[in-house]
Amino acid sequence: MGMGKQLRTYGWLGLLASVLVTGCDDAPSANRQEDPCAEPRSLRVEVLSSDGAYIQGATVTATNLESNVSITGVTDDRGVTTAINENLAPSAIRVMATSGSHVSPAQQVEWTCDACHCTPVPESLTLELRD
Hints:
Number of helices: 1
Largest sheet: 6 strands, antiparallel
Distance between the termini: 91 Å
Helix content: 10-25%
Order of helices and strands: HEEEEEEEEE
Structural class: alpha+beta
GO molecular function: carboxypeptidase activity
Strand content: 25-35%
Shape: globular
Radius of gyration: 26 Å
Protein name: Carboxypeptidase regulatory-like domain-containing protein
Keywords: Carboxypeptidase, Hydrolase, Protease
């Protein structure tokens, strides 16, 4: 009887160990395939008033200079949008912001591309609205 009880205990421990090993999300798995190219790169755009205050709700528009395709984003409570992304690459883009009747001067952004992504150059812009 002592031997049967010992086998049941080891059997239960073996089952518990297999559940712990297979239930761990951090364990590497041969079936996992993460695509390093999946997430598009974005341009960080910050919009300020002429006196240096962050502008929430400003509209930022980026336009591809060759195709004329545009992406528009709206700034958050920190005056920032990351809506402009590499979907406009590889051609240069023109970026400007508006809020009400206030408009920023346009700035040009280039792209540096590799096999996976195009990265904006510069990676961030600060646009100042003119009164």
